[in-house]
Specification:
Largest sheet: none
Helix content: over 70%
Low-confidence stretches: none
Number of strands: 0
Radius of gyration: 15 Å
Number of helices: 8
Oligomer: single chain
Distance between the termini: 34 Å
Structural class: mainly alpha
Length: 126
């Protein structure tokens, strides 16, 4: 239901739906990540809250590829490339979902691109 509201651009109702999921199941990593994404989309003022939710998701399931990719992207933004690469690679190897593998490759490629290692970047973009 939360994803439906999200797609309909009803972020207020999406948030309520995801919060309800967490009331019913405190360990639901997908709901934690969805709320983190809503916080990230709300602007910089909510980033601390988003990171708290991502940390909680990681504490709940440190091998969840979606959680690992979100952390990888966070460290990429902070220019902590070694951490970002390690997390993105771990996410890549822990999933069979093509979209998650693609996002992991994108994070790796962007990191190499920012470091001006264009050969490595190209190998991950393709």
């Amino acid at each position: 239901v939360g994803l439906c509201f999200y797609k309909l651009n009803r972020m207020d109702l999406a948030r309520v739906a995801f919060e309800r999921v967490l009331q019913l199941d405190r360990s639901n990593v997908d709901a934690m990540l969805a709320l983190a994404v809503l916080d990230l989309n709300a602007g910089e003022k909510a980033w601390a809250s988003a990171m708290d939710k991502i940390r909680s998701a990681f504490d709940t399931n440190p091998r969840n590829p979606s959680v690992l990719n979100e952390f990888a992207y966070y460290f990429l933004e902070k220019k902590q490339f070694e951490r970002s690469n390690a997390l993105a690679l771990m996410a890549y190897h822990l999933t069979d979902v093509p979209q998650l593998k693609g996002y992991s490759c994108y994070i790796l490629a962007k990191g190499y691109h920012l470091q001006e290692d264009y050969d490595q970047a190209l190998s991950h973009y393709g």
